[in-house]
Amino acid sequence: MRSLLLRLYGAFTTAVQPLVRRKLRRRAEAEPGYGVAVEERFGHYDDATTGEGQCWVHAVSLGETRAAAILIAELRRQYPGIPILLTHGTATGREEGAKLLEPGDTQVWQPWDMPGAVQRFLDRFQPRIGVLMETEVWPEMAAACAERRIPLVLANARLNEKSLAAAERLGWLARPAYSALAAVWAQTEADAHRLVSLGAKVAGIYGNLKFDASPDARQLAAAATLRERLPKPMVVLASSRDGEERMLLDVLRRFGATAPVPPEQGAIRSIAKRVHDVQWMIVPRHPQRFDEVAALIEAEGFAVARRSAAGEPSDAEIWLGDSLGEMALYYGLADVALLGGSFEPLGGQNLIEPAACGCPVVMGPSTFNFAEAAQLSLAAGASLRVENMEQAVTAALKLVENPERRAAMAEAALAFSSSNRGAAERTAAAVLAIAQAADPVATEAAPLEDARAEPTLE
């Protein structure tokens, strides 16, 4: 029997459906991907969209999709031919997820969390198990899966203090949703404690799936070749968020990056000369901001060269990495990376990826999204923490001028990355065990099987 509060929540999400549609139309003007298959978001599918008894993996955005890619690859290794149902909430997530599909897989939008859309989604696909990535727990979906005895699990789970406080304010919705999950596998012990406080059944602390990702070898090889032609060492502001690009440009301008470089005076070089001796690069986190950041760079008085237009290095003051899926190339080119999302109070971006590429990192004060990874990285000597962008630029310049320390940090980064692997194997095994134990009669789902592979999970 559903609670009155959950029924009221369902009535609310149904009532605001027109607003959701309007928001999607507006988003589609800037990002056409949001205009694709819109009706899927409300549980309406064409006849060609089929698939029953699949392993459903939900990865809302780009970062979660990349983590899901690691898990899906391991699921396929442990259970060849496993059919995957992949859902997303953002256009970049769906675009990245399309690269993961194999024959027999299905990809659709995550249904809006209202009773009608959720019921139509579950009726159409009848997943054998649902795997939510990292943070995506929706009350209506959790309740509907529990009613149908479809095990719904949360993998690579994380929950920071800010998100916990928000969930506690809406405890009447959050606690039943987390309690309805069949299992949760947390990234860290701190995440586990916070999840348990919301009623989640934490079945293990497996670490972060992203440690199991291997950088694109072709991109790293291309970066190594390109580095030989670079006239200057490179510092990259990686996965930058709104506001951080302006911070960097302000610091570079104050340090004299746009002014004529004064002559050297003996052994002492001016800060402007040191800044000019470095090639600076900005890689925005979100592709819809590429044009905006290019315009900002020019407005601040810098010449800009875009990866999408130039391809090869130029003598522009600022390079703009305006491409998707090339972070390994950018980290391979960089002597030092400034961690985006950590200089604004946004919790930081993924610092595991630069570590896997052997790239030293300078991070700002805000890393709550990767708190334990940040602490481990600092302890390993793979990164530095500073309080603001000016300190970050100064620290990067010092590293550029100290090849011995930079090499030691690069080696520490690789060791830090390799020592934290193993989450994918543990998580995939746990997912398959729960799927195998699920009762197909009770769930009215087909066995999780595929004609291409034996044995089935029955």
From TrEMBL:
CDD domains: Glycosyltransferase_GTB-type (cd01635). The keyword Cell inner membrane applies. Keywords: Cell inner membrane, Cell membrane, Lipopolysaccharide biosynthesis, Membrane, Transferase. The record marks 134, 210 as: Transition state stabilizer. Its main location: other. Residues 320-413 form the Glycosyl transferase family domain. It is an enzyme of class 2 (transferase). GO terms for molecular function: Kdo transferase activity. It is found in: Cell envelope; Cell membrane. One of its GO terms (biological process) is lipopolysaccharide core region biosynthetic process. InterPro entries: Glyco_trans_1, Glycos_transf_N, Glycos_transf_N_sf, Kdotransferase. It catalyses: lipid IVA (E. coli) + CMP-3-deoxy-beta-D-manno-octulosonate = alpha-Kdo-(2->6)-lipid IVA (E. coli) + CMP + H(+). Its EC number is 2.4.99.12. The active site is at 64 (proton acceptor). Signal peptide: none annotated. Pfam families: Glycos_transf_1 (PF00534), Glycos_transf_N (PF04413). Pathway: Bacterial outer membrane biogenesis; LPS core biosynthesis. Belongs to the glycosyltransferase group 1 family. Involved in lipopolysaccharide (LPS) biosynthesis. Catalyzes the transfer of 3-deoxy-D-manno-octulosonate (Kdo) residue(s) from CMP-Kdo to lipid IV(A), the tetraacyldisaccharide-1,4'-bisphosphate precursor of lipid A. This is 3-deoxy-D-manno-octulosonic acid transferase. It comes from Variovorax paradoxus (strain S110).
